[in-house]
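Students often ask why inverse folding is considered easier than folding. One informal answer: many sequences map to the same fold, so there is more than one right answer. In these notes we will look at a single instance of the problem. The structure comes first.
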């Protein structure tokens, strides 16, 4: 437990009975800096946020309406503003996390330029972004607590004891902006030892939760693209163990591992694992390989391999690049087996099933199969911008209503035309929007989804917002475009970033100058500061 204002004051008065140090530093200034420093190290963050996640998981097990959410953020500022917004909305940050997407690191945060999601970015880029996000969230704490101490000083100077006690209570009950990060380690960036080394750096940067996928590291693809290649289950389990060992070594005993399976959309595997006996992990993986019979017309040639299947030798279908193909239509079964193995033998805490459409029934049916083996299986789910949400949900509503006899096939057209704005105000359009609004509630209740995330929202939001401002500013509106689309909305919504100097710590600097210099302090926040124009807001 962190010490209260009174406890800090009591400790310091015992050391400095006059209320100041021998060098003239006031003990209240020391207390402020101690309380502003909400975490000593980022490893402390990882340890504490892991406990937060575990508590949230337990709450979800008891009540599926208590699912958690996050947005993918590609900078510390995006994460900071998201969490500030949540705090304004809810009065608390509970249930809100930050998702760190490998896609956005590749696309926006690496030294090689804009890259596709194929693990080509530097390993250190992910670590650097975790560090940056937590620096930004901790700075939000510093700015907010500084404001609370300013209120305390104002109350004391005015002799207002009621306001003074209110300010102290606000300081003691302050809730940090620091929240858990679910950090994407891709496919581990190499072998199991490379995964372990990177995992340690991510944890030391503050990550309490690592998400890792069962693709081949050097052939990794975005989950919503073709050409995905999975690794045998034993290989993936070794990487799950590598992540667990990294958590244990660093004392993050409650660290959370999300095991992601891309098998639903992956039709290839890197290698044929060696089975040691019937029903083992390798055997259960091999059985899904696409094979050809060995016949006189299709003999086993030099350089080819054969495996025993159902009492006969067959040839696994091998691509020109040496990869092996799975049987068509087996993705769902492989996903279920992946999930069970990852939980029961890999020690994963949460699952991630990468799907090709946002369909609650489809995901719920797979989770129901997993829960036959692991009753408390829980998921994170990617509410991906790669889905055309409007079109998918309208198609789902149309198909269901036709099957129920509610409408005729001719009532609404099939295909991409359903995306048209002309269907927004129709019964179908409204029903699809209602399902969209409750999608996360439904999937959490019916499909075991503990955590709902959107991987790339701030990428798309930034693109849209800059386009919106640019179209007006470089068009006929000019300054009106900025005021209407940005500043006026900031002021009316109470977005603190409207006072941009304050947001990045200008007042913190003034406070510190006063701590060490008193009346000599040269402050930025005087009467000539243009940020005073927003004081009334």
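Output (designed amino acids):
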């Amino acid at each position: 437990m962190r010490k209260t204002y009174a406890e800090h004051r009591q400790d310091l008065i015992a050391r400095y009975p006059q209320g100041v140090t021998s060098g003239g530093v006031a003990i209240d200034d020391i207390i402020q800096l101690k309380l502003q420093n909400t975490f000593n190290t980022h490893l402390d963050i990882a340890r504490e946020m892991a406990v937060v996640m575990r508590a949230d998981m337990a709450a979800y097990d008891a009540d599926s309406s208590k699912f958690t959410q996050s947005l993918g953020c590609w900078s510390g500022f995006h994460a900071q503003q998201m969490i500030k917004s949540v705090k304004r909305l809810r009065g608390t940050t509970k249930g809100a996390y930050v998702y760190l997407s490998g896609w956005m690191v590749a696309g926006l945060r690496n030294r090689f330029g804009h890259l596709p999601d194929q693990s080509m970015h530097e390993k250190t880029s992910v670590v650097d972004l975790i560090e940056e996000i937590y620096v930004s969230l901790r700075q939000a704490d510093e700015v907010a607590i500084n404001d609370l101490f300013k209120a305390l000083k104002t109350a004391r100077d005015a002799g207002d004891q009621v306001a003074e006690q209110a300010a102290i209570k606000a300081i003691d009950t302050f809730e940090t902006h620091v929240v858990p990060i679910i950090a994407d380690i891709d496919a581990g960036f190499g072998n199991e030892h490379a995964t372990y080394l990177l995992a340690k750096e991510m944890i030391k940067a503050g990550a309490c939760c690592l998400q890792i996928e069962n693709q081949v590291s050097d052939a990794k693809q975005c989950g919503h693209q073709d050409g995905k290649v999975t690794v045998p289950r034993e290989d993936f389990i070794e990487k799950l163990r590598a992540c667990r060992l990294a958590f244990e070594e660093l004392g993050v005993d409650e660290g959370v591992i999300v095991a992601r399976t891309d098998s639903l959309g992956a039709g290839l595997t890197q290698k044929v694992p060696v089975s040691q006996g019937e029903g083992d992990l390798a055997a259960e993986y091999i059985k899904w390989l696409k094979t050809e019979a060995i016949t006189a017309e299709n003999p086993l040639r030099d350089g080819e391999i054969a495996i025993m299947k159902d009492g006969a030798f067959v040839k696994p279908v091998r691509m020109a690049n040496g990869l092996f193909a799975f049987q068509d239509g087996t993705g769902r079964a492989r996903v279920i087996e992946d999930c069970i193995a990852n939980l029961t033998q890999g020690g994963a805490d949460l699952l991630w099933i990468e799907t090709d459409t946002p369909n609650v029934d489809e995901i719920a049916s797979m989770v129901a199969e997993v829960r036959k083996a692991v009753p408390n299986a829980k998921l994170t789910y990617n509410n991906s911008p790669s889905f055309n949400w409007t079109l998918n949900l309208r198609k789902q509503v149309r198909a269901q209503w036709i099957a129920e006899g509610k409408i005729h096939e001719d009532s609404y057209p099939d295909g991409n035309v359903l995306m048209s704005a002309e269907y927004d105000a129709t019964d179908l359009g409204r029903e699809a929007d209602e399902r969209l609004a409750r999608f996360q509630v439904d999937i959490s209740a019916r499909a075991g989804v503990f955590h709902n995330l959107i991987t790339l929202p701030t990428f798309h939001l930034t693109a849209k917002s800059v386009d919106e401002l640019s179209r007006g500013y470089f068009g006929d509106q000019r300054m009106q475009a900025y005021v209407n689309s940005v500043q006026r909305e900031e002021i009316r919504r109470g977005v603190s970033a409207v006072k941009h100097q304050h947001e990045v710590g200008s007042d913190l600097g003034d406070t510190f100058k006063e701590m060490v210099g008193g009346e000599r302090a040269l402050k930025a926040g005087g009467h000539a500061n243009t940020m005073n124009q927003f004081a009334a807001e």
